[in-house]
Amino acid sequence: MSRSETLAAYLRSQARRRLDRVESNDDGRNARGALALFDAAAYAASLPDDDPLIAMLDKAGCYGPLGCEDFDPGEAGARLIRDWETGEPHELLLALPATVTA
Question: Its domain of life (predicted)?
Answer without folding.
Answer: Bacteria
